[in-house]
Amino acid sequence: MTASKGARAPQTTFVLGGGGSNGAAEVGGLRALLERGIQPDLILGTSVGAINGAAVAADPTVDGVEQLRDMWLNLDDADVFGGSIFSGAAQLFRTRTHLHSNQGLRRMLSERLPERFEDLKVPFACVAASIERAAEHWFTSGPLPIAILASAAVPGVLPAVEIDGEHFVDGGIVNSIPVSRAVESGARDIFVLQVGRLEAPLEPPRTPVQVGLVAFEIARRHRFSRDMATLPKRVRAHVLPTGDAKPPKLSQLNYRNFRSIAERIDRAYEAASAYLDALPSHP
Length: 283
Description:
With 283 residues, the chain is an alpha/beta fold. It has 11 helices and 8 strands. It has helices spanning 24-35, 48-58, 62-73, 77-80, 85-95, 103-112, 145-151, 172-175, 179-184, 208-229, 261-277, and strands at 12-16, 42-46, 124-130, 135-139, 161-163, 166-170, 189-193, 236-240. It is globular.
């Protein structure tokens, strides 16, 4: 999505990172931005950030964010994953690749989002990881819900998504917080909405599950740190805070944890509002 010759580059880009149920924090940041009249020319999302980003691209208003907040507040893990952890174990036994069906998430996306990228009010793109090409793939046009489903297909939790004979899994594997894509698109002001895990200290893993979590966190943080350190001088990037005084340790992360959603959204809203109000001037 690099700006073509003669086309206007997106001046302001919202970048929404992945992070499972912690993605509720991004809703607070989005509200703070839109209340201050900071409107995106482009929205980029990964995994849960793709879900939030597409919702705002469909309705880039404070009212649109309130509808997104209502969705989060009424969300239950059964809506996304369906059934109990025991049924998940049975699903894993049957498939040998994933704990949960993606039908609940697919249904929710189809009910709440437009059918196609072209129906959105703000240009939007989301990233997924191609298994066959071992590379990041950006969806920018065509059917919308299935592209987001691919971007949010957490390996081992949800099945890979097949699109045109190619299989895709969670975009966080290849570009968890896609600042680089915003730069390539020509953005001058980038607002990064993240879920708070960047501040959580990493420790040597003690269990097989932690081995995978730590490896993933190293990969996602390394790329983000590199992208932020190599920003062109023309680009201003703002990483909105989430307001979490004590970010969760990896050992405490639970992808099915949908408790305290309202508090998480409100903390992020207050923290992002304070950050934005302290800026010398809004773009």
